[in-house]
């Protein structure tokens, strides 16, 4: 070979990455039942990527999710393909990490990082583990700084902090996505990462058009996987969105992470777990589905080393308006606060339909001054007095003058509901929210 040709060949091969210093393990497809695949001769660790060559010569992506004896269990990432017995199974090195970088800002991607917005390819400069990096709990900073959400009821009564994890819990059609859109528009954040997991395809385009204004869109990354995609893709989408948020936090930025919805992520893990033979527990959820929630939520928070933070909002669907659902319980136990939306309040035309009595911010006492806390407690006291005696009041069985607190709660009920009410496109700053609360209920 001439020196010039050798130099040219070396230049071309310089960009080739074999990934390993040994021959690749090529397996064969031994079983396929529509959701789970079994491969022989493919001894790869759990979480590794794979490509299965279909009968028509194309390849479909899959991920190793377990093993049974000498057989490796894989789950497809591309839905159903024309798989045949003995099909070739090849390793795919792109499964364990995700592409991150500033090029993601303003883009909409799927669970595999492919662009959905038609704006061309994304040149990701760096890689980040999709499952995150194990950290020291002592590196997690305390929540001491308030976070302006732009929603008066949340700012004043359920004050959020930088690095807090909040669950928005409600049944279907009560306004979770609308409230999330209000929070995006009003949030003070350097980067916004949105994970739209398991929702209707129409809602994805609607969210981008109505709930992500241009100023927020330019600093946002949206990871979208509709409900008709494979369960593993829905799960990877939530993990990818969290990994992207972790990367920006590592750069010292203030990140707002929104996952809509955490329940759909748990449903995806339920499908995977049951396919692997896990025993179903409460409402058919296997242990892995309930264990997934703390693993995902605990990745958010503030980092004392870099000064960056991830303030996370997770919507949780209460199936059948059951706030004791296992997923609701698991989420409520691990987050730093929860906002419960009430169907009865929504039916009165009051949005956001926040049930003040059952909602809570566990960091509010550490980040608000005493006069703010006292005014919020006064409003909550009146709310509780009315709710505890609602049946008596509505039936006319309560005699005015019996209890001064209940009397005040009845008189001021319209004022309280008016304080909660806010238009979908309206942003109310933190200072204005607190001033209104203290003026009406302070002292």
Q: Would you mind describing this structure in some detail?
A:
Its main location: cytoplasm. This is Flagellum-specific ATP synthase. Pfam families: ATP-synt_ab, T3SS_ATPase_C. The chain starts with a helix and ends with a helix. It folds into 3 domains: 68 residues, Thrombin, subunit H (Beta Barrel), CATH 2.40.10; 272 residues, 3-Layer(aba) Sandwich (Rossmann fold); 71 residues, Up-down Bundle (Substrate Binding Domain Of Dnak, Chain:A, Domain 2). Strands 8, 12, 13, 14, 15, 16, 17, 18 and 19 form a 9-stranded mixed β-sheet that branches. The model has no long low-confidence stretch (mean pLDDT 88). With 443 residues, it is of the alpha/beta class. Helix 7 packs across helix 8, helix 12 packs across helix 14 and helix 12 crosses helix 15. 36% of the residues lie in helices and 21% in strands.
Write the layout of secondary structure elements.
Elements: H1 3-13, E1 27-32, E2 36-40, E3 49-53, E4 59-68, E5 71-76, E6 88-92, E7 97-100, E8 107-109, E9 126-129, E10 146-147, H2 152-157, E11 160-161, E12 165-170, H3 176-186, E13 191-197, H4 201-210, H5 214-217, E14 220-225, H6 231-250, E15 254-260, H7 262-275, H8 287-297, E16 301-302, E17 309-317, H9 326-334, E18 337-340, H10 343-346, E19 360-361, H11 364-367, H12 370-388, H13 390-395, H14 404-420, H15 430-441
Parallel strand pairs: 8-14, 12-17, 12-18, 13-14, 13-15, 15-17
Antiparallel strand pairs: 1-2, 1-6, 2-5, 3-4, 3-6, 4-5, 7-9, 10-11, 16-17, 18-19
Helix pairs in contact: 6-7, 7-8, 8-9, 12-14, 12-15
């Amino acid at each position: 070979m001439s020196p010039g040709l050798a130099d040219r060949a070396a230049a071309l091969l310089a960009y080739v990455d074999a990934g390993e210093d040994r021959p690749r393990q090529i397996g064969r497809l031994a079983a396929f039942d529509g959701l789970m695949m079994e491969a022989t001769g493919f001894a790869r660790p759990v979480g590794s990527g794979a490509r299965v060559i279909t009968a028509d010569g194309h390849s479909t992506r899959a991920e190793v999710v377990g093993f049974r004896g000498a057989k490796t269990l894989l789950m497809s990432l591309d839905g159903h393909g024309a798989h045949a017995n003995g099909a070739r199974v090849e390793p795919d090195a792109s499964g364990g990490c995700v592409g991150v970088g500033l090029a993601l800002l303003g883009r909409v991607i799927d669970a595999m990082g492919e662009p959905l917005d038609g704006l061309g390819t994304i040149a990701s400069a760096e890689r980040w583990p999709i499952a995150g990096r194990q950290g020291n709990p002592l590196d997690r900073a305390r929540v001491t700084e308030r976070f302006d959400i732009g929603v008066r009821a949340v700012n004043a009564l359920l004050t959020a902090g930088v690095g807090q994890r909040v669950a928005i819990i409600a049944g279907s059609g009560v306004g979770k996505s609308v409230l999330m859109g209000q929070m995006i528009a009003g949030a003070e954040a350097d980067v916004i990462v949105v994970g739209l997991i398991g929702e209707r395809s129409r809602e994805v385009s609607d969210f981008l058009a109505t709930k992500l204004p241009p100023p927020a869109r330019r600093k946002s990354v949206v990871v979208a996987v509709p409900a008709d995609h494979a369960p593993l893709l829905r799960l990877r989408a939530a993990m990818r969105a969290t990994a992207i948020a972790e990367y920006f936090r590592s750069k010292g930025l203030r990140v707002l992470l929104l996952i809509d919805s955490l329940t759909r992520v748990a449903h995806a893990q339920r499908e995977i777990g049951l396919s692997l033979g896990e025993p179903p527990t409460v409402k058919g959820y296997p242990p892995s589905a309930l264990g997934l929630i703390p693993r995902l939520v605990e990745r958010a928070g503030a980092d004392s080393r870099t000064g960056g933070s991830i303030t996370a909002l997770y919507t949780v669907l209460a199936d059948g308006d059951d706030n004791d659902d296992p997923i609701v319980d698991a989420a409520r136990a691990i987050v730093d606060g929860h906002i419960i939306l009430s169907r009865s309040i929504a039916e009165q035309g009051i949005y956001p339909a926040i049930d003040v009595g059952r909602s809570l911010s566990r960091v509010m006492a550490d980040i608000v001054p005493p006069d703010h806390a006292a005014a919020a407690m006064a409003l909550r006291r009146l709310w509780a007095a009315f709710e505890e005696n609602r049946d008596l009041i509505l039936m006319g069985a309560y005699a005015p003058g019996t209890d001064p607190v209940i009397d005040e709660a009845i008189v001021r009920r319209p004022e309280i509901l008016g304080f909660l009410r806010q238009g979908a496109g309206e942003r109310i700053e933190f200072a204005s929210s607190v001033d209104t609360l203290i003026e009406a209920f302070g002292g």
